Amino acid sequence: MGEKVVLEALGVSKFFYARTKKDGKRQVVKAVDNVSFKVRENETFSLVGESGCGKSTTGRTVMRLLEPTEGKVLFMGENIMDRKGASLKQLRRQMQMIFQDPYSSLNPRKAIGRIIEEPLEIHHIGNASERREMAISALKQVGLREDQFYRYPHEFSGGQKQRIGIARALILEPKILVCDEPVSALDVSIQSQVLNLLQEIKDSSGVSLLFISHNMSVIRYISDRVGVMYLGRIVEECETARLFRRPGHPYTKALLSAVPEPSPNLRTERVELQGEVPSPLDPPSGCAFHNRCAYATPLCSAKIPERQEVETEHYVECHYAKELLRVSQQSHVLAQPAVMGRR
Amino acid sequence: MSEQVLKEARREQRKVMLGAILGQRVALAGFFIMVLIALLAILAPVLAPQGPYDINPLDRLLPPSPKHWFGTDSLGRDLLARTLYGLRISLTVGGETALLSTVIGLALGLLSGYFRAVDNVVMRICEGMMAIPPMLLAIALVAALGSSSENVVLSMCVAYMPMVARVARASTLSVKEQTFIEAIKSSGAGWPRVLFGHIAPNIMSPVIVQATYIFASAIIIEAAMSFLGAGVPPPDPSLGNVLYDAKSVIFKAWWTTVLPGLVMVLTVLGLNILGDGVRDAMDPSGK
Amino acid sequence: MAPLLRVDGLRTEFRTLRGSVTAVDGVSFEVEAGQMFGLVGESGCGKSVTSQSIMRLYDEKKLARHSGKAILDGEDLLSVSQKRMRQIRGRDISMIFQDALSSLNPVFTIGWQIQEALKMHQKLGKRESRERAIEMLRLTGIPSPDKRVDCYPHELSGGMRQRAMIAMALVCTPKLLIADEPTTALDVTIQAQIMEMIVDLKDRLNMGVLLITHDLGVVAQTCSRVVVMYLGQVVEEGDSCDIFDNPRHPYTIGLLRSVPSVSTKKGDPLPVIQGSVPPLDKAGAGCRFADRCPLADEGCKIEPPALVDLGGGQKARCRKLDLTGG
Amino acid sequence: MCLMLSYLLKRLFHVVTTLLVLSLIIFAVLHLTPGDPARIMLGPEAPEETVEALRVKLGVKDPLPLQYIRWVGNALRGDLGDSYFRNESVASAVGKHLGATIALSVWSQLLAILVAVPAGVYAAKNKGGKVDAAVAAGTLAGISVPSFLFSLILILIFGVWLKWLPASGYKTLSQGIGLHFRYIALPVISLAFMQASLIARITRSTVADVTSAEYIKTALAKGVPGTSIMFKHALRNAFNPILTTIGQTFGLLLSGASVVETVFNIPGLGQLMVSSILKRDYPVIQGLVLITSLVYVAVNLVVDLLYGVVDPRVRVIGENA
């Protein structure tokens, strides 16, 4: 992947104001809280975390589909926070998005050719026949047939609909493609077909991917770098292989240990994780994970931890980041039979 | 080259869609009844032995006969002529009401479903209007504006427009949440393209269903208003007037009520069946 | 000792607008008491139709027709009367579903719904049945159960709703629990807690569990025996170690390989099963996987393969098993 | 309980805004009317000054907002102004005619509910069966036959040919229960026919949707018998949409009543409305529309409050979902 930074988020936050009032003040939901990351040219940067951690909101905020409450976003080095009207529309052309639910991501009343063509029309690119040619080639590029051009979405399977969504996003030749859980709604065998397609497109067109998912095995396969999110904050960020080999943050460790490996002989040594993700309406004080963390100390509940670079380009947001990394065993995946279900 | 393939694909696609439409038996039944009713209305001059206004007191209240299929009313006017011309008036009044209230209601519903600011204002007004029983509102307006068929249409529109607005708003709110709306926005589309290009086509079915129900009940309400003397002014033969005249002679000439009544019921039935058919057609679980 | 549940040649046909469709075509397997049995397959393979047919949840007058046998403790569930079936459901065999928000009645508290299950099968006083409900909620790990018992489903988090549903299913200590995608809608950390709780309760109540899921990881970590289904048929069956280490049916092989796991190298293309699952009414005469199978030949398309016994309790429905040896 | 209270307040605020809009519309309708009330009351020959004096007395000259506020103020105190032609106040005129309409609408709404809800539930229970088809056809006829036509036909059959029931006229409850019911039997049936059809159609589709919900499958899996699945689990969830329909169709009932009253010449509000229209007696028309709308709003407020009782989720969201 190249060195040039395509997209950079600096201290981006997105707060929602709940309708319900609590002791006089309107309750604030910090969906995204002071998030910073970079996406380099032709790199796949992923955001992973459980539902409610703010990964989808982050994706939409850096694209300015949602207006950020604080912070800056640089696209190709230029701040896009104050772009309006035509210049904002120009930005839309360079940042495109694909969505999770194939069944509601395509307008049921339009033929798929029209759906793929429309972005070109919005940006007045070429004339009608040129637009049709480009749409047909995009259709073929994602593995569909030319004679399906006039078909309607309800005649396609989930996997095919996802391919149409990808064709629609790519027709504008964006610099960066934000993928919001693109394969979560698909069956395993279809999932790998779509992942291969995304990988092919990234290699051939040099587009960068901001990939959002809760599925750790998909993240491991497709990402170059990973940011783990918890209650609106990136608690750990580093290169993919290292994250899976030596996770630094306690939450990452717990998250990885909870992922069931698809082979009975590899049992993940479970990190007990009590309770559930607290409600974002009133997050715990200090480090948001302290009430569920096995290593928590009074300091954790007092102060929000700083982001430390424990290794080159490996950031962890935890007071005891360095000590925990040393302690973290070489590999938490032990090669002994999974005793849990054995009879 | 690919031109030929595309043309072939387009023709094939149209065939599939036509097949789907023909498959909806209920909607088709309703459609055929309406075609029949429309023909009756259009061919009124041909079918009716004489004009609806020609009075000849000599043959008052004749029973149905080869000369007068529906017999004659208390002023000796041919009942078939009055019914068919009345059908024409009722259809136009009902049709105009349905069309006008649907167009306005659709626009209001779309805007209030999409823009929250518009929503609060428009919906409060609509709720206020809907609180008034439709017929009473229409009668009060006709009494105020004077009774003419235009005023009848106008006052019925005021009563029905909020109903369409409410259906349109509810559908807009649900379509607005769909992912393909967020997708087209992320491609840089402005609100006009989003609202009229993408949301409107997806809410047409429930609105059309509502329009057919309004068409049907507009015919009933118009007839009821004429019955109360606030509808299309006599001597124009709206179905309501025909039935109003028939009321006074119901003991002597029952057919003056039953026969025009049948034609009216058939019309309204046809519209309601069409409405049910379209609703079942677009309801996905119906397949 | 006789198995807890023996399913033999289960077949379910649905009457639809376009004629009848066979969603489950001759499925057989056995579940032991205290065993976690996995039923795996992609969407549309008939795994949840199988479970709901065993529970006879479909409307048999207008919609579904079952044949074959499903013997629970010596009684064939498919042939008993609906009245008798109502006594069995909830007491001897109970079921949990994927999304508790839509599977719990939104207008009743979870306490009321759990006590309803008790009322169906045991005569208990009001106070005592409420005690049993609270105890059951505590058993499934819900914090402060005495307060939660009076909550409505929409007032609980995803994980807690799922625990409430499990409490409802287990309150009459059934012999067999059917879990239809119990953790698919949950986050991975909650999923781990719930699966661990199910396994713990299985051992504590010596209960058989039929786990239906498409998540190969969950099956690998919790089940001892597995059945893989494709388009309404069992294509492979065996101990989970054999199935995962030495899969013999081309579909199982393709499925296992297409899941990115520890061993997959980042960047090079994932192995893939070509094409997609054909609709049920278009399944061919021969092997239903023929048009997507790399090993298929003309014979596969004509001749329906039998379920071949490979020894050690492993079976596969394929004519080309010699080519797929471990 | 505080959730219930906040829900209550929200609904009340909602109703106040509706009433405000309502009164504005009715007031506007009155002032759309051409013509000059003073001239109508005194007749064409009356000299200009006396007519002018009357105009001042009636306050027709004042600026519109002032007239509106005075009208609302009086209305709140129950004084809806005086009728042009009946030398009595609108309120007393309405009072005299109220009894008949209340009897008519209450009985027909009750009959409609008693017939429609069970029919709808039963049709939904065995969807596609003979009963379902019969209910579907019956309700389709119900909404296609206008109530005045149905009344005429009822009169024809029971009044003229069979002579079982009186073809018109009205006896109050106090004049003998048997007599009262004999007179209102036909009007109530004709009104209830359309009402029942509307309610049955919604009940049928709502109950059908609810019975295909997931929690019904769970109840089945718990061994709950069919009857309590239908009446406890399904109906409790279908209750709100059905309730809403009953609330909304009450509006249609009030307009339908005025037509049926004319056919059976029952001295109800409908007849008062018809005579006021013929004579262009605007204050009475305006008063009638206001009162019937108030009744409609009150009925729907009760429906909204019941909503909160039946469905706990509604208390949180604040609107009927």
What do these coordinates show?
The complex is a heterotetramer of chains A (about 350), B (about 290), C (about 325) and D (about 325). With about 350 residues, chain A is an alpha/beta fold. Chain A has 11 helices and 14 strands. Chain A has a domain at about 5-95 and about 175-245: Rossmann fold (3-Layer(aba) Sandwich). In chain A, strands 6-7-8-3-9-10-13-12 form an 8-stranded mixed beta sheet, with helices on both faces. In chain A, helix 3 packs across helix 4 (about 130-140), helix 4 packs across helix 5 (about 160-170) and helix 5 packs parallel to helix 6. The longest helix of chain A is centred in the middle third of the chain and has 18 residues, at about 190-205. Chain B is mainly alpha-helical and about 290 residues long. Chain B has one domain (about 1-45, about 80-280): MetI-like fold (Orthogonal Bundle), CATH 1.10.3720.10. In chain B, helix 4 (about 80-115) packs parallel to helix 7 (about 150-175). Chain C is about 30% helix and about 25% strand. Chain C has 12 helices and 12 strands. Chain C has an 8-stranded mixed beta sheet, with helices on both faces. The longest helix of chain C is centred in the middle third of the chain and has 17 residues, at about 190-205. Chain C starts with a strand and ends in a 9-residue tail after the last strand. The model of chain C has no long low-confidence stretch (mean pLDDT about 90). With about 325 residues, chain D is mainly α. Chain D folds into 2 domains: about 1-75, no CATH class; about 95-320, MetI-like fold, CATH 1.10.3720. Classes of the chains: A alpha/beta (about 350), B mainly alpha (about 290), C alpha/beta (about 325), D mainly alpha (about 325). The interface of A and B includes residues 88, 95, 122 and 172 of A.
Could you write a compact summary of the structure shown?
The complex is a heterotetramer of chains A (343), B (287), C (326) and D (321). Chain B is mostly helical. Helix content of chain B is 76%, strand content 0%.
